[in-house]
Design a protein that fits this description.
The complex is a heterotrimer of chains A (165), B (812) and C (149). Chain B is of the alpha+beta class and 812 residues long. In chain B, 27% of the residues lie in helices and 24% in strands. Chain C is of the alpha+beta class. Chain C has a single domain, classed as START domain (Alpha-D-Glucose-1,6-Bisphosphate, Chain A, domain 4, 2-Layer Sandwich). In chain C, a hairpin with a 2-residue loop joins strand 5 and strand 6. The longest helix of chain C has 23 residues. The N and C termini of chain C lie far apart (40 Å).
């Protein structure tokens, strides 16, 4: 622990479940999720807040959890990639990513999915440009983004079709 | 040179009789994707073990300095700190890393932690292991190092000049190796050619920057006396010898495991230094030790490609035929030759590109500098080489006033000469390259774009078109290293696989490869499904490499696009052998002639009486339990192991050899517009034609093509390492090292042709590195856009400042 | 990078006062921008913890200060060796004092060498920051001496 720092007790709800942990004030949210709470879906890919692999939904907004202190998230509702599926059923975005092979190594994928989830929640019928802008903060080195854009378009279509839900 | 001899072709040709073609080529949903979209990937940092401790490194701020002293006392006394090691501690525990180079470069002393001297900025100088990563980093910052800065060697050509500071004094110079290649009557062609075209080109420094950095968890279990190393290394067997020597533990006690790897692109070959250090620490502490690199550490110190400068001369006929090429090349390999200078031989896989060039000379130097060690970044050594060739082709086209597509058409190897033998002994397996070029030009509406270009130029706009052909050689013959060090006992390129039918009739497959997103579980399962005609969903492929369960050779791993030609071939062989055994047992159980047994849809029946059938589940129960129902004398079980060995040879006395098993090819047609105000290039159209032999899974192949193009665009326009003259790396994080986002990579169009390889049983060819074609295509297009100004681009990177300088009229 | 900087201050105080100030490590140390803590070890040395920030890189470096050469009352050569945040910063400075109508003319020359993450991250700003850091020390000297009267 850094000098003179007391641990802080943080309570959060992640994917609908209550969790708590004692963390240093300087502990990043991503580190609390992964190391203290064992939620390893969100990943760490950089140290400057650029790659977006750590993207989660915090109180309804997409955030890079490496840019949030765990103590700032006290009392929050957090949604990670693990929370997208319901009762063993994949979310349409997850299905679309799978069908369109919108991933290869899968490391950036949790972040891409959360950014896409946030986009479709605000804009159910985005254009290609709007999709690219929405995932601008999610770097991918494998796919060249081609299939990711395709998958998000497909998911948007599926989610807005009358048969959905 | 010419079509290969029938004997050689026959030697290489593989049998594919066991394929049913019912499962190959289908876009089946990749197996890996299911867990990955659910956030259930098993990456190294996801490994959590009881009592796990964490490592952090103190790294050199200097590019070149002597270590005069180190004070670790403050760090060591911090609560929660378990261990602080410096180079001297490592020196006591292991021998220096073996060098693959010939003397005197072999004298270079290389330890995972710097000893006496630091030779590149970011080189690890001390390791701290503590109860948490935060604590370990705090402690590392409390270590005091007294450095004496030395002048840094930052230019590879200057490094060879007498009087240059030395990166390794014990070597006596900065030269790692020098090889002079000469094939065919080069002098004759240069004397008799109609003209000679000269140029100097430079391939810049960049890296793969996978989103997952290097990581390892080393876990020494003292109850079983086993060291388990969870890592994300691309070729675990290559460094197992060092681990074994460092720990003084035999291979049967060393378990190296890879599972999901978050991309590598060549950067995760030389990360084994961390695996060795973490393992030594784990053995010492009797606790698991985890190390996860930060992005800054990764960009600064993990792995760069080797910059290459080439002086190129082409002997050309008036009609544009290129007769011969002469080159002098210098590779900047950084501070340690940990994987390099393999690059000074690997280029020879595609020595004459896709062209009928008759003779080639290359005077090749590999050099030490005070930069991050170089390694085989995606496109390794072939991409820079093909860049040189494609650039000189553009120069020739410009000089003769010939269309760049036309100049290539005139020089491409003809389909009737395939399989083709190059002057360096390379054996190109298959492909109709003139047809591919034609198809690519049609798909890209090349003529239409040329007309549009004229129109836009009249409006004062700078639009250019690049047409580039590329070769994606795959499945390397490691004997290439003998070309710079004849004494190295490392040859051929082999891979193993296990295909087992388990007692429940399912199929279990283990591979020797360590995939990083290339869909090995998927394509391996498809090959097995195709051979056995068993449902894809009933085939379970082990994730990644495990030295306790994988069938491996010392070549095993995932690099050099080797899985399709070597790995899948082993899978095919193992599945084919299993198929034969299933057929034999079925014949016995059905009292049917073996030649009449048909395996179809998970069961076997007799052709002469199809009602008599037995499903694989029942055969499996017999083979494992009800053994008396087996053919007499036959071994029980349904295990099938195969190790695929291509008929590779060592280079002959003139360094001629076939250095790769398969040769995919591609053609890229790119249209670029340059903004005259900002110098920013914009890609207006991108069409790529890809032929990687028989396609196993089109989703996987397309994904690789997209990814390779994205890397190439990034390298040409956004990614370039900048070192200053003192050895400071000026862009070592994502603020300044520009990895493109979804806004920078344009939509990409891919068209396919499929010319199966006769040299692999599946017909599949390795692919995915792309040969760097995208880099060449983008640079070519920008040069074309600026050609009204007489611009000539000699670098593989064109950023807005460079372009603006050309536009404003100053020298390039 | 090893840029050379120079500057000049006119100090409203007699030369001896300026000399005494500049040869007092406590006084010089107090003028270092971003100072967090200071330990004077003897008349020619101090160590200090100094806050630095360039772009997104912020942290503390440990600075060792040494007076290398003294030619009273006109010339001092001093050097600062700072390390931390994965970086090294070396400043070598020569100060010349001359009598002037208003008091004392202080001319300084410094060369700054930065290596490591700071050099990488801050490459764009480093020249400006290096100049400002050194000149701030001498501006502070001027201010403190003015107030001293």
């Amino acid at each position: 622990m850094s000098e003179g720092q007391e641990l802080v007790h943080v309570r959060v709800r992640v994917n609908g479940q209550p969790y708590e942990a004692d963390v240093e004030p300087r502990t990043l949210l991503i580190d609390m999720l992964r190391d203290n709470l064992g939620i390893t879906g969100p990943h760490i890919g950089c140290d400057t807040g650029h790659c977006g692999a750590c993207t989660v939904i915090l109180n309804g907004r997409s955030v890079k959890s490496c840019m949030v202190l765990a103590v700032q998230a006290d009392g929050s509702e957090i949604l990670t990639v693990e929370g997208l599926e319901k009762d063993g059923q994949l979310h349409p975005l997850q299905e679309a990513f799978w069908e369109n092979h919108a991933l290869q190594c899968g490391y950036c994928t949790p972040g891409q999915l959360m950014s896409a989830y946030f986009l479709l929640g605000r804009n159910p019928n985005p254009s290609e440009d709007e999709i690219r802008k929405a995932i601008e903060g999610n770097l991918c080195r494998c796919t060249g983004y081609v299939n990711i854009v395709k998958a998000i378009k497909a998911a948007a279509l599926k989610m807005s079709s009358p048969r959905a839900g | 040179m010419s079509k290969a001899s029938p004997e050689l072709i026959s030697l290489y040709t593989q049998d594919s009789a066991a394929l049913t073609l019912k499962w190959l080529g289908k876009p089946l949903k990749p197996k890996e994707d299911h867990r990955l979209v659910r956030g259930r990937g098993a990456f190294v940092d996801d490994v959590q073990l009881p009592r796990m401790a964490y490592a952090a490194f103190l790294r050199s701020p200097y590019g070149h300095a002597r270590i005069k002293g180190m004070d670790i006392s403050r760090a060591k006394s911090m609560p929660g700190v378990l261990l602080v090691w410096t180079g001297d501690d490592i020196k006591k525990r292991m021998r220096p890393l073996p060098q693959a180079t010939p003397p005197p470069a072999r004298n270079a002393i290389d330890y995972p932690l710097a000893v006496d001297k630091v030779r590149f900025q970011g080189e690890p100088v001390a390791m701290v292991v503590a109860e948490s990563r935060y604590l370990a980093e705090d402690a590392a910052n409390q270590i005091d190092v007294d450095y004496e800065p030395l002048p840094a060697v930052m230019d590879a050509e200057k490094a060879l000049e007498p009087g240059s500071p030395l990166v390794h004094e014990e070597v006596g110079s900065n030269m790692i190796a020098h090889v002079h290649y000469k094939w065919g009557d080069v002098d004759y062609y240069f004397q008799h050619a109609d003209m000679v075209v000269d140029a100097k080109f430079h391939y810049h420094r960049f890296t793969g920057a996978p989103i997952e950095p290097n990581a390892v968890v080393a876990d020494y279990d003292e109850r079983l006396d086993v060291m388990t190393v969870y890592c994300n290394n691309q070729a675990p067997m290559e460094w197992l010898p060092q681990l074994s020597a460092g720990l003084n533990m035999p291979y049967p006690k060393l378990r190296v495991v890879t599972r999901d790897i978050g991309g590598a692109f060549g950067t995760k070959l030389i990360n084994y230094v961390y695996m060795v250090l973490a393992s030594l620490a784990s053995k010492e502490l009797r606790r698991p030790v985890k190390y996860v690199e930060t992005r800054t550490e990764n960009l600064q110190a993990a792995a760069h490609n080797a910059e290459r400068t080439c002086y190129v001369s082409a002997a050309v006929q008036r009609d544009g035929t290129v007769l011969a090429i002469r080159m002098k090349c210098i590779d900047d390999d950084g501070a340690y030759s940990r994987h390099e200078p393999a690059g000074m031989t690997v280029w020879a896989q595609v020595s004459t590109g896709l062209y009928r060039i008759k003779a080639l000379e290359n005077d090749f130097y590999a050099v030490f500098t005070n930069k991050c060690p170089s390694t085989s970044i995606r496109g390794f050594s072939r991409a820079p080489h093909l860049f040189m060739i494609e650039r000189i082709m553009d120069r020739i086209a410009r000089k003769l006033g010939v269309d760049p597509a036309e100049i290539r058409m005139r020089n491409l190897v003809r389909p009737e000469d395939m399989p083709y033998m190059t002057p360096s002994g390379g054996l190109y397996d298959s492909g109709n390259w003139p047809d591919g070029l034609k198809k690519a030009l049609e798909a890209a509406d090349y003529q239409g774009w040329r007309r549009k270009q004229e129109e836009l130029r009249r409006q004062g706009r700078y639009v250019g078109i690049g047409v580039v052909v590329g070769s994606d050689s795959a499945g390397p013959n490691m004997a290439q290293v003998k070309m710079y060090n004849p004494g190295l006992p490392y040859t051929s390129g082999t891979e193993g696989a296990l295909v087992q039918m388990t007692p429940d009739g399912k199929v279990r497959v283990t591979l020797g490869t360590s995939p990083q997103g290339m869909g090995h579980e998927t394509t391996a399962a498809q090959v097995v499904a195709d051979v056995l005609d068993v449902d894809y969903d009933d085939i379970y492929v082990q994730t990644g490499f495990d030295s306790f369960t994988s069938i491996y050779t010392m070549h095993s791993g995932t690099y050099g696009s080797r899985f399709a030609p070597l790995g899948l071939s082993a899978v095919y062989l193992a599945a084919a052998r299993l198929k034969a055994k299933l057929a034999k047992i079925a014949a016995y159980m059905l009292r049917c002639n073996e030649l009449d047994v048909v395996l179809d849809g998970g069961k076997a029946f007799c052709r002469t009486d199809p009602q008599r059938a037995v499903d694989f589940k029942r055969i499996a129960r017999v083979a494992y339990g009800n053994v008396n129902e087996m053919p007499p004398g036959m071994e029980p079980g349904l295990y099938s192991i195969a190790i695929f060995r291509p008929p590779f040879q060592n280079p002959d006395e003139n360094r001629r050899a076939n250095l790769a098993l398969t040769y995919s090819y591609n053609v890229h047609v790119v249209v670029v517009e340059v903004d005259p105000e900002t110098g920013m290039p914009r890609i207006l159209n991108y069409v790529a034609l890809e032929d990687s032999g028989r396609i196993v899974n089109p989703l996987v192949v397309d994904g690789q093509v997209h990814g390779a193009i994205a890397h190439g665009i990034a390298e040409a326009l956004y990614e370039k390492y900048n070192y200053d003259e003192n050895g400071n790396l000026l862009n070592s994080n994502f603020v300044d090292y520009l990895v493109p986002t979804a806004l920078e990579i344009p939509p990409l169009s891919v068209v396919h042709t499929e010319t199966p390889s006769p040299f692999t049983p599946t017909g599949a060819k390795g692919m995915g590195e792309g040969g760097g074609t995208a880099v060449q295509a983008v640079i070519s297009a920008i040069e074309d856009a600026l050609s009204p100004l007489g611009a000539e681009l000699v670098d593989s990177h064109a950023d807005p400042e460079t372009i603006l300088r050309i536009l404003k009229g100053s020298s390039r | 990078m090893m840029p050379q900087f120079n500057g000049s201050e006119t100090i409203e105080a007699p030369r001896q006062a300026v000399w005494d100030f500049l040869t007092d490590p406590q006084k010089v140390g107090d003028c270092v921008p971003g100072l967090k803590s200071l330990q004077v070890t003897d008349s020619d040395h101090f160590t200090a913890d100094v806050r630095v920030g360039v772009g997104i890189l912020r942290g503390t470096i440990k600075v060792k200060y040494e007076v290398v050469e003294k030619n009273p009352p006109s010339r001092i050569v001093m050097k600062m060796d700072g390390s931390g945040v994965g970086s090294k910063a070396l400043i070598n400075s020569t100060v010349e004092l001359k009598d002037a109508p208003q008091g004392t003319q202080l001319d300084w020359v410094a060369d700054v060498t930065v290596s490591g993450t700071l050099a990488g991250l801050g490459a764009r700003y480093l020249n400006d920051i290096a100049f400002k850091t050194v000149s701030d020390i001498f501006k502070c000297t001027k201010e403190k001496l003015k107030r001293q009267r």
